[in-house]
Amino acid sequence: MAHPADGIGRVIQGDACVAEGADWLAAQHPRWAKALDATGPLPLRLRPDGFAQLLSAIVSQQVSVASARAIWAKLENAGMTTPEAVVSVTEEDLRALGLSRQKASYAHALAAAGIDYDALRAASTPQVIETLTAVKGIGVWTAEIYAMFSLGRADVFAPGDLALQEGARILFDLPDRPREKALRQMAEDWRPWRSVAARTLWAYYHVVKQREGIA
Q1: At the top level of CATH, which class does the domain 3-46+156-214 belong to?
Q2: Helix 162-171 and helix 180-187, axial crossing angle in degrees, nearest 10
């Protein structure tokens, strides 16, 4: 179940936590109930935390899923998934494994940042975002997604995400897709379960797009 923790709020640890958040949202507004009725049970989507997860996020930036998987497989095969390994090779070596010059630079920056990933688990969410975004190549969206899925924070949102913006536009019948600042403000009403609100909007967006495809 979700447990309160010092300074980090609720932590999602299993499907029951997500269901608890979904029930809370459905009770707040009939539109959430409508979305959850359409999506069914929401996915847990928890991921590991640590260096490899963030390096994978860098690899995935602005490339297709297939390309990201192919590059990641090369990095794994070469043993380039730890900070020690990455700092021990040159950027040219990383480029030979499929990284762009920019991403090779980002990988080195992340490896050299000396982040204490165990300590991040106990850090407040703002501290997590601040620590991660201090690294070249990691933006606010990546940091928020890490807090949401790798650390299981129940009250994080990623308003810069285009699918979340579009999901909110459809669900709340807005005239335009809300920009990041506006969506961040909207999400204040969804505390303390903003991560579950995000899961709901992603799932609802997917359902709507599937229906459009069938139509």
Answers
A1: mainly alpha
A2: 60
How confident is the model at residue 213, as a pLDDT? 78
Would you say residue 5 has pLDDT above 50?
Answer: no
Residue 96: both structure tokens together: 């030979």
Contacts of 123 (CB under 8 A, 6+ apart): 7, 8, 131
Selected from 1.10.3720.10, 1.10.340.30, 1.25.40.20, 1.10.260.40, the CATH number assigned to the domain covering 51-150 reads 1.10.340.30
DSSP string, 6-50: TTTEEE--SHHHHHHHHHHHHHH-HHHHHHHHHH-SPP------S
Is the confidence at residue 6, as pLDDT, over 60?
A: no
Domain ranges of the chain: 3-46+156-214, 51-150
Structure tokens at 24: 């809370």
193 pLDDT band, cuts 50/70/90, is very high
